[in-house]
Amino acid sequence: MSRQHLLQLTRKHQDLDAKILKETRSPSSDDLALAALKRQKLKLKEQIAQVERSL
Predict the structure, then answer these.
(1) Do residues 9 and 48 make contact, with C-beta atoms less than 8 angstroms apart?
(2) d(CA 48, CA 52)
(3) What are φ and ψ of residue 28, in 5° steps?
(4) Measured between alpha carbons, how far is 44 from 27 in angstroms, rounded to an integer?
(5) Distance CA 32, CA 16 (A)
């Protein structure tokens, strides 16, 4: 895998982080949506770690 792929994954991880922050600050936050976003972020973190090990 390339550094470009790592950069894309990192960018997606940051975007999810921003969405999670926005959702937690929302007065009508949806707990299920928040949990789904956190799961996606964790999967991306695992993918990032895997790509970093392969470089």
Answers:
(1) yes
(2) 6
(3) -110, 45
(4) 27
(5) 15
- Residues 1-55 have pLDDT tens digits of 689 999 999 999 999 999 999 999 999 989 999 999 999 999 999 999 999 999 8
The C-alpha angle 26, 24, 12, rounded to 5 degrees, equals 115
Are 37 and 20 spatial neighbours (Cβ–Cβ below 8 Å)?
Answer: yes
Instruction: Give me 20's structure tokens.
Output: 């999670």
Enter the pTM of the model.
Answer: 0.87
Write the single-letter amino acid at 22.
Answer: K
Answer whether 44's CB lies under 8 Å from 9's CB: yes
Single-letter amino acid, residue 23: E
